[in-house]
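Please check this:
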Amino acid sequence: METAYERIAKNLKGKPAKYSRFTRFNQHKLQPHDRRAHMCVRCNRTEAHIGIHGLSYCRECFREVAKDLGFRKYGKEA
């Protein structure tokens, strides 16, 4: 499914002046609160992101590499 930006850009391909102006002023700017700004460095997943201490892992990848990073489990099941 194409976005509105892609649809308009496709229509303006034949008009180089308007196309260059459109692409210059209408590019998507990645915001800090955007989902794509927080992605897992191992699997590129955007859900369940753990960003504390400068980590960029999803919860599943974090569980796999936590011991290698020096984290320990605390609690009854530890």
